[in-house]
Amino acid sequence: MTSGRSELRIFLVLYLLSLPLQLITTGSIIRQGTTSLVVLTAIHAGVVAALFWTLLANAIVATQVVEDGTLSSLVPMGILALLFFVATTYISLDVALVITDLFGPSDPPQAVHSTPLFVFTSVWPAAAAFLYFVIMAYIIVGVLRERRPMLYYLAAAVCFVLGELAWFLLGKVICKNTNAKIDGRFIATLLETACVGALFMGWRSITEESWDDYNY
Predict the structure, then answer these.
(1) Where are the domains of the chain?
(2) Are 140 and 153 spatial neighbours (Cβ–Cβ below 8 Å)?
(3) Distance between CA atoms of 78 and 10, rounded to whole angstroms?
(4) Residue 60 near residue 135 (C-beta atoms within 8 A)
């Protein structure tokens, strides 16, 4: 019932693209407050929003509502990913640079807060991840009646939740206890990468036969 090699590749490529952007935007490579950092941060936000759409799209394709690897799957997936990227990137730039008054400025301006931006960068990723795990759990347990692959997805879910906690709640604690050598963002990135790895292993475990027959 599941395959989606092409769709999974798109997700993995976007994740790999997000890693250097995350390194640049959360590190000290570019001076804080510069326009270049604002632009890269906006692009990173757009990539993340698109990334979570491709994650959810992989679950939708796994239900075989459309045939995986075909234009009926890849074209809508690509178009919506592009829309998520453009919308989130534009809103991020609008809030930070005050291009218009539609989405910004934030209050206070230095906080760079915006409800639409919060929805695209926080609410949407959480909702997409939740729906992904629900759909995949239904497919694996309810349809395929497998148990072992579900362990990978449970591990991925745990890593995702821990990564979000490290990012939003435990950053200062981790930084303080490691004498500022490691911060929450570093731990979150490791956990997110472990999550993606577990997702890949879970996907491979339920498509193992077709994977072995695949000719690169």
Answers:
(1) 1-128, 146-210
(2) yes
(3) 9
(4) yes
DSSP class of residue 140?
I
Mean pLDDT of the chain: 84
Q: What percent of the chain has pLDDT over 70?
A: 80
Tell me the pLDDT tens digit for each residue of 41-96: 999 999 999 999 999 999 999 998 888 888 999 999 999 999 999 999 999 998 88
Largest interatomic CA distance in the chain: 57
Q: What is the pLDDT of residue 198?
A: 95
The tokens for 106 are 């934030």
Distance, CA of 99 to CA of 154 (rounded, Å)? 42
What pLDDT does residue 129 have?
A: 96
Of the given ranges (23-27, 45-49, 181-185), which has the lowest mean pLDDT? 181-185
Q: Are 69 and 18 in contact (CB under 8 A)?
A: no
The C-alpha atoms of residue 134 and residue 163 are separated, in whole angstroms, by 19
SS (H, E, C) 60-81: HHHCCCCCCCCHHHHHHHHHHH
Q: Which residue has the tokens 């193992």?
A: 208
Block residue for tokens 């270049």: 36
